[in-house]
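Letters spell out the chain; backbone shape is given numerically. Both lines appear below:
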Amino acid sequence: MDALIDLHAAQPYWIWLALGVILLAVESAFSTEWLLWPAVAAGVVAVVTALGLPLGGFWGEAALFAVLTVAATLASRRLIQRVNPADSPDINARDSRLVGQRAQVVQAFVDGRGRVFVSGSEWVAEIEGAAPLAGESVIVEGMDGSKLKVRPV
């Protein structure tokens, strides 16, 4: 422990740089998205201490680290909400992702059942009313299990 205290007294930026690298390594291993900003804050404190700006010793550095961590975390949450709004469809939720998309009929509808091509794959589809011919377009209205409910364009 004395060696760590002596290292901080002589070159405090190594302590903060090491902390930042460790936090970044753990973040990379587990993808928590919570350790990225403390790692960045530790890197900033390392740069500030390397430049020799007076922070009042370890407690001043720790306070700067805490403030930067909180500020970066809050700012990133706002940025993430703006970039990925909660009401946007999840790429893995196929029913919400396909609804409203235009599909092409690949197998003509017989008795309200046929096949359509949408989003890179063929799907079994059901339609009510006039059945479009192969090659025509339909709009996906919903899903029933693995069948798409479609309507004419």
